[in-house]
Amino acid sequence: MRVPRSVLSALLLAAGPVLSLPTHANRTLSTRQSSSDRLVFAHFMIGIVSDRHSASDYDDDMRRAKAIGIDAFALNIGTDDYTETQLNYAYDSAANNDMKVFISFDFNWYHPTSDAGRVGQLVNQYGSKASQLKVDGKVFVSSFAGDGLDVDAVRSSAGMDLFVAPNFHPGQGDFSKVDAAFNWMGWPSDGNNKAPKPGGPVVSVQDGDNAYISALGGKPYMAAVSPWFFTHFGAEVPYSKNWVFPGDTLWYDRWNQILDLKPNFVEIVTWNDYGESHYIGPLSSPHTDDGGSKWVNDMPHGGWLDMAIPYIKAYKAGSNDVSQFVDEDKIIYWYRRTPKDVNCDSTDTTMGSADNSTGNYFMGRPDGFDIMSDSVFVVPLLKEAGTVVVNSGGVEYTHDAAAGASVFSVDMNVGTQAFALKRGGQEVLSDTSLMPITSECPCGIYNFNAYVGTVPASPIDSLQPDGLSGFSKGLKASCDAQPTLVTGQAPQTQAPTSTVGSDSAPGTTQAPASSTEDSEPSSTEAPSSTDIPTLTPVPTDTCSTTVGSDNGGNAPETTQAPVSSTEDSQPSSTEAPSSTDIPTPTPIPTDTCSSPAKRSEEKAKRTLVHWGRFRVEYEI
User: Fold this and answer.
1) 258 vs 266: CA distance, rounded Å
2) Are 13 and 170 in contact (CB under 8 A)?
3) Roughly what angle, to the nearest 10 degrees, separates helices 59-68 and 302-317?
4) C-alpha–C-alpha distance, residues 14 and 22, integer Å
5) Are strands 375-382 and 404-411 parallel, antiparallel or unpaired?
6) Where are the annotated segments for Disordered (predicted)?
């Protein structure tokens, strides 16, 4: 049985095109392999790529990662019979694409003491390959979990100099034996492998940073950066688990913390773990499916990859100022497909009994759902200041954004989501998302994954047949196992029923600009809290809606404004449309849409809590 990776990590932590990079980052990787340099890795799951048949099947992943500044893939391996075949392909592809890789042993499968010799032998087998990452001239090796690993036995069995950077936990692993350590926990938790609860204890990501830095006593630290964490497996698999950790603006917040912290290494969690929803790699990357495609299909995350580009540049340059690394105007946005009060109990895949030996199975809505915000999150990456306009289900919001990177959120409204950038009253960029927000359960389930989009729009990214092979596992609702997003077929943009003006910057979370960006402060103190502005729509009587009940109740239906009658046409082109290619059709008259008045009513019953840069609403 596969034990969820975050289980061990959180519990043990509680117990104790080619980019133009800055001068520092333009050196070849071979000349930067020093523990004093800043390197970026991405966690890559070998266990789900048994359908790859040659090194060329890894080429696209290698090229994409290299192009945005990722230095190496951490190849997470278990003990599957295809592991070494896939490792050979990955190492060969990395060599062919001037990338680096290293093995990350998953101790859900290996035993820390009895398998130490086996671990060392595998390191020896691949350590001399051209694409093996070396730091300080030593073969780099890492892990997921592994407290209690006999590091001396690993070194002896490997028979070569190693740079050991495992996912040991403060108070559990022996930090005197390692060269560095990796902190997997990139999400706030309650300290017991669960999402924080309103009014309950919170272990922030910065708390984890501080614990590791203290335990390492000056040795290099590998910090995690992750955008999301949602999984929703029921009885259809033996490792049932159903949770969501605080996401919202985590990806933006964490990168700004990284610029402040300046750790030796950063590991993105993950490139391709689709079942846990923290993937930033493409859906089209070849992989098999254990049923996670139910919440992954039509849910690309490539916009998060785009957002990371200037941050990776700034991190490698030792800068706190991301604005100088923004090369083009772009809007990154993300949101969930449904408000959290939509009721899916009658058709959801987790509404039956399942194995709960790990304590991570919850029926219905995922554990942690109540602290997620019903919002659309927006990060403008701007070369110069501009006004960002968001039309969420017919409610139009305007927000003045500064040059560089900033973040804001608006209330989620059922309907089409459209975005634009204006300067001097003229539209510079615009696009309509292919994914509307609805009051219907997608494929009958509670889907708390994020849909991530960009303006200008990126090409369509779809799961391949192998990535949909387990789609129907456990499904109770009728749903086709195929991608549905079509270029040029965005839903009809709803005419605004109300408009919300910008407060012109005060309170906006803005990535810091620093005139001393090249300095190297030694402090690892977590950044101070900054509130994220939420623009609230003005009440309007032109719309009405009903809100679903909590788990176990009967949710009244919410009426969605009709979409264009021409939406079923299927253009053959798959080329990403330019912002001027997609006309805004005249809306069909309707008397129903998401009600800002109702949402304002809801907000009066909520309390706002902040920790670090995180913002949580909960009902009182």
Assistant:
1) 8
2) yes
3) 50
4) 38
5) antiparallel
6) 486-607
